[in-house]
Every structure is written in C-alpha cells, then in structure tokens.
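Workshop exercise sheet. Pairs work together: one partner reads the sequence aloud, the other fills in the structure field after running the prediction. Swap roles for the next sheet.
Pair: D.N. / O.F.
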Amino acid sequence: MEWETVIGCEVHVHLATRTKMFCACANAFGAEANTQVCPVCSGMPGVLPVVNEEAFRLGVRAALALGCSVAGRTRFDRKSYYYPDLPKNYQISQYDNPLAEHGAVEFEVGGQTRRVRITRAHLEEDAGKLLHPEGERAESAVDLNRAGVSLLEIVTEPELRSPEEAVAYLQALQQILRYIGASEAQMQEGSMRCEPNISIRPAGSETLGTKTEVKNLNSFKAVGAALEYEVKRQQEVLESGGAVEQATMLWDEEKRVTRTMRTKEEAQDYRYFPEPDLPFFTIARELVAEIEKELPELPRARRTRFAESLGLSEYDAGVLTADKAMADYYEDILKSGAPAKEAANWVINDVMRVLGEEGIGVDALKVRPAHLAELVALVADSTINATIARQEVFPEMVKTGESPRAIVKTKNLAQVTDTGFIDKIIEEAIAANPKPLADYKGGKKTAFGFFIGQVMRAAKGKANPQVVRERLGKRLDGET
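Structure field:
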C-alpha cells in the first residue's frame, strides 16, 4: 500500500528577555544549577506571578513576522500535569485565548516553495530540567534555572508531508526568529525545541491517522532521523495488521530508534482552567502597529531582493541572507560603493572562511565593510592584483583592522606597471630558460604560461599581469 505522511510541528522558543516570564530571575544559559531561582519560579506557596512586558512585545513581534493575527484580548490558563521538574504541578500557559492565530510560513525544499499554516502562537513558562548524572547510583537531579523562562509555543497545521519538509520549515522558522531578534533559537542549548506530531494514512485519504509526538528534539538532524524512523515504524505496524497507539515518544540518539515515553494525553487530561492570579490582557492596536513598523525585512523577502535587484544567483543570495548580521555587513559594503557580485564573492569566499576558522561572528570581525569595499576598488583599478589582495592584504586586514590602502603603502604591494622593469624581467626569464623558449618556437603554446609564472615570481607577484602578458607576447612572438 502507498502511504502519505502527515506532520505538524509544535515548537517552543525561549524569548530573548533578560528575566523570566513571571518573575525577575535571570534566564542566562549555562549558569550553575539552581542559582537563578526564586520563590515564584520554584512554586512556593503564596507567591504571585507578574507578567514580563518584554515577553509580550517579543511574542507579538514573532506573531506578526509569522503572518498571524494578534488577539485584542488574551489570557493565561493553568495546565496541570505532574513531573519532577514542574514544582507547581501546573504550567502557566494559554489555551482558548492565545496571543495570536492564523499565520503561515513559506520555505524552500527540493527546489520548490512550500507553505505551512500556523494554527496559533501562545505565551507560556518553561519547566525545569532533569539531570541524569552518570555513575553507579541510579538517581536524577532537578535544575530549576529554566523553570519560568519566557516561552512562545508555535503550532502548525498538519500540512507537512515529509521529514525533509519538516526540517526545512524549522530552519526557515529559526531564521525568521533570529532576524527579528525574538529568540536566539539555539536548538543545542534548548532555546528552540521541536516536538513534531506524525501520522500516516493511505495515499488519497482525507482522514488523519493516529499520531505520535516525538518529544524535545534538539537538532535538525535529530528531527529528520526521528521522523524517518517513525514513518517506517508506523508503516510496519499498520501493514502487519496492528494499530498505531497515540503516544509521546522519545528519540534515542545512540540506538537511532524512538521509544514510548507515555501514552498521549488529551486536552481534558491537563484540566485547563483560567489562571486565577492573572487577568485578561488587552493588546492595544496602536502597540501592534508600532511593533509591526519595527520589523526588519524578513529573510525570504531579502533573499528575493538580492537575487532580483542585485543580480545575484539564488545560491549566493541564500548564503548572504542566511544570517541577518551577515546580510547587513554585505549591504554596508555595497553602500561604500563596491559592485554587488564582487562584494558577494569576497564575503562568501573570504569573510565566511575567516569566520569559520576563528569561530566568531561577523560583528567581531576587524575588517569593516568600508575597508572591504576599498579592497575591491584597489583590485578593480589595478593598484594591486587579486592574488596580492587575497594572500597579502586581506589577511593583514583580518589581523589588524587597518585599511587596505594603508597596508599596500606600508608593505609596498602596489602593482608594477613600469614596462622597462617588466621587460628586464622578461629578458632574464627568456635567457634562463632556453628549453621552454624552444618549445614555444616549436608551437607548444603552453610554454607561454610557464614564462608568465617565471616573470610573476621574479616580480614577487607585484607586476601587473595584463602588462606582463602583453609585453611577453610581443617579445616571444618577435622570436618566432
């Protein structure tokens, strides 16, 4: 039987607030366990939550970037469940009055544009984290640093049709969230966690199959692998006459299999009811309009503009816009007068190589956009050649942050165009290499390249290549 895969994604992202959702505790990643905890986020009796206004603003910002309609009034609910890292035994979340609904995200996969609808985006607090130290004693510890951290949960419709589509959607979502500054969305740090729901059904059927949810996947690779495994597992269950059980699954990275964590709860199992300590919140239309005006150009629109307006290839445009800081850096080079294609080549081939080697972001790079534009201009007007620019000048710019013009002057790297000097080197090269000269006279034109290399080496790479080719050609052709 031919099967169709149906996937929906629930994504939890830590909003880029300095403090937690309902208290003033810091939420910095990597702090020593249980050092960012207070009576509110540890669930002590008698405490009251106070809503983080910045979390609201960032939530609205993300919702607008995802094309959602922001609610005029919204409220929080209590979601009851019992787990060791949830000290209150309930989570403050949103249920029937979420922050925003009805958005969509477009993304590229397999050379095609796909679109998935966003069902809802709502605010909530995170739970803590269980630690499982290695050793002989079978015990776990609880770290409440993460408890109460501001979360935005983003839920899609079940419209993704393959693991590849799910991964492509998540990558597009991460890029949008980073572009707008709503979240760092680092999967490996847990500030973006994906819980995909997956089911299969006979091809052509409109009825959804029984779904499973894979919990807390922390890399795109894990998402793809877990979904591929679940597709295969569910097919085997159904084709053997069994029934898929609705359950929450965990991905075992070492064994590359999913395993059942618990049978899946329904909404009624969480006993949602309005949070009694928090009122309805009204979100002013003026505030929404203000936040919308602050949104930057989103990555997909920017990528299209780079390709259509600047004449870049789809690949180059995609690489340059993958990160907002890098795209801003590139555009600053253009503002300093560099041609689009030449600037793109330098950023993609040289700047990104250095960033990868040094493990830094473009904001930490000493080479400023105006200086890179100046370097492009020095090559264009033949002050230096491309080899000197890449092997001598650019590395010095990376090291010192100096302007390329100053480096060229200090190191005496300007190209030599003096025909007398070049002719002298040509004569020396010809005199020192009678065999290649004979080869050239005999019709072996590849010997011309040999002499070019000899002359450029003698000139230490500073001779103008065009002048060398012209003068050498005249000299050698005069010998034939």
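Discussion prompt: The chain has three domains: 3-287, 297-411, 419-479. What would you look at next?
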